[in-house]
């Protein structure tokens, strides 16, 4: 039967294979940070405080290019805007928890924790919301922190000829491909990418934020013009 | 390379602001639920396109710029390696497999062009 402990364990079992993919991603984040000269303490702090891989990599890159601090922060927030959507969609399941629990579970909210938990919540109403979610989200958090530390330690010793910095765009690519689920999201990706090229020379490195906004607008226009083709929840 | 213009305090502030802001995004509707009925439909429509637009904007310049200029030729090894990685990402939807394929392709091409 469903108990807090068994629900927690069920979450751990489902997330275990995904942790394998988190390890290289976290190591890249740690290695990339020390690669652009961010001190080890701050490289690890980024993972603990921000805890959102793609946005950390974007921030690291901008820090490396010497972008203004405000632009770095704005970029982190734009990259993480999708969490508002997760928050809205998972909120009903956490509605009866205390404010403290809500805060803790919100801190742990990631793409994977959201997608896995929501699937289970919708299929099995009996599941303990907080314990199943913790079983998924906490191992992700722990693995991310450990992988970042390893990346920080190893990253400083990798020779430049290995082009390890190329791992960063590869991670973006690996996350982008599954995010393109229909023609409208494809349009958002195409226009966002093209605008990023065109806007590359803009001052203060605001090219990324500009490209994101134009890409999102293109997706909405494409959706109105073409329809989505298929109905699919964003995962 | 050094984190040139970033002194320690500014970098800490950036990390803190990015973290607090990200937490606010994550907590937004979890905290407000019950007080606010639902995400406004227009906002929800826009949010659907955030991952694709943002990730593409992060990725594409990394592939097409080399040595400070546009490099849309086969002599740019990152283009080919990116194409290989995209194919693998499409087939597997796996970060590790994509990383291995892309890094492997980059090493092969740079070695071949040597």
Characterization of this structure:
The complex is a heterodimer of chains A (235) and B (114). By secondary structure, chain A is mainly alpha-helical. Chain A has helices at residues 4-35, 40-49, 53-64, 69-79, 82-94, 99-107, 111-123, 129-155, 167-179, 183-198, 207-226. In chain A, helix 1 (4-35) packs antiparallel against helix 2 (40-49), helix 3 runs antiparallel to helix 4 and helix 5 (82-94) runs parallel beside helix 7 (111-123). The model of chain A has no long low-confidence stretch (mean pLDDT 90). With 114 residues, chain B is mainly alpha-helical. Chain B has a two-stranded antiparallel sheet with strand order 1-2. In chain B, helix 4 (77-92) packs antiparallel against helix 5 (95-113). In chain B, 40% of the residues are buried. Chain B is built from 5 helices and 2 strands; from the N terminus they run αααββαα. Chain B has helices spanning 8-32, 41-47, 50-64, 77-92, 95-113; strands at residues 65-66, 69-70. Chains A and B meet through helix 1, helix 2, helix 3, helix 4 and helix 5 of A and helix 1, helix 2, helix 3, helix 4 and helix 5 of B.
